Amino acid sequence: MTTLLTYNLAVQAFDERDYRTAVERFSELLEAEPGNHNVREYLARAHYHRAALKPAEEHARAVLAEDPTNEYMTLLLIRSLERQSRGAEAAGLRRVLAALTGDQEHLRSHSLA
């Protein structure tokens, strides 16, 4: 299967909320292209939606290592930590995000859609 076709099928699975299939396809793509941040973001999101919080955290941290200002991945990481009962660590990240963006709303806990 071509990379573009696999990507399109992975996005389709994600959009249809078939996160198991999305994880499988995005994992395959990431193996072929380890530096593809778009694929890694989708993979983090799919893991999060499957409540696979450790893999979601790992992929979010990998994205943030390359792009520390990625607001969505920071929020995903915060929510992953909160759902793992790691509130103090999440609160620290919330303060950093609020300082970076100037938006004090980030200090409040919200669910991630």
UniProtKB/TrEMBL annotation:
Mapped TPR repeat ranges: 3-36
Superkingdom of origin: Bacteria
Keywords noted in UniProt: TPR repeat
Pfam hit, one: TPR_19
SUPFAM superfamilies the record matches: TPR-like
Entries under InterPro entries matching the protein: TPR-like_helical_dom_sf (IPR011990), TPR_rpt (IPR019734)
Protein name: Tetratricopeptide repeat protein
Species the sequence originates in: Tessaracoccus defluvii
